[in-house]
Amino acid sequence: MAASIIDGKLVANLIKERVKEDIQNWMSKGNRAPKLQVVLVGDNPASYSYVKSKTTDCIEVGIDSETLQLPDTISDRELREIIEGFNKDDSIDGILVQLPIPDHIPPQAIIESIDHRKDVDGFHPMNVGRMQVGQPCFRPCTPAGIMELFNHYSIPTKGKHVVVVGASQIVGTPTAMLLSREKDGGKSTVTLCHRYTKDLTKHTINADILVVAVGSPGLITGQMVKEDVVIIDVGINRVADHENERGYKIVGDVDYKSVSEKASWITPVPGGVGPMTRAMLMKNTLLAAKKSLYP
What we know:
CATH superfamily of the largest domain: NAD(P)-binding Rossmann-like Domain
CATH topology of the largest domain: Rossmann fold
Shape: globular
Oligomer: single chain
Number of strands: 11
Largest sheet: 6 strands, parallel
Strand order of the largest sheet: 1-11-8-7-5-6
């Protein structure tokens, strides 16, 4: 029996519609529209595409947004000075520095230079720490989106064995954190795997829920999962496809055909987790404007 589809695009549209209504109500009380400041360093085509999609989402929900594109030769100090100016600008509610940034600039230093009250990506140590102890914070957008998908489709996580493949600070680690917490959903037993994990199948085969975020197309096959597993595929990879007029196709980290024959639920790629990430960014930007997390 084929797996049921977890339609991230559908859920993301519902979230954006709620955000749009909230913004309209917010502005009807005399408040200005929320504003998101995006910083794009260099000319990475994928980053440009992501930023364009986020800008489109902002327009849809009523968030003002500006994108500052900087040359990849900019120094660490110069970039931090620009961010500091945005920190002090009361007309800006959220600041997003599109990752990755050039190798000569330490990403963590840039993340920490953003005022945590404007860190709508949820990467600042203040937000990560508050999330760890269950305090109000901006949650990282992709993990928060995954939790929303579980909630929308009433997929239980309590008492389940969740295996997260990929330990990045952006997706894997915070997802494991949220799923293992006692509050706000979760309550799962979590195994976190990474590039040094030996015999990956030994872990994935026991997963009730499998979250994969490593950027390796087709890494997880049907032989590596058990019947009725729930699959959250975060991977977005371009692979050659000569039958496609673009010359490539987008696939996830999971071999969709073989895994979907065993899974109970599965996210497609594209159209699964990706739209949720952007929707949660819209939600975080509204929260930043309302100053409901950090008065």
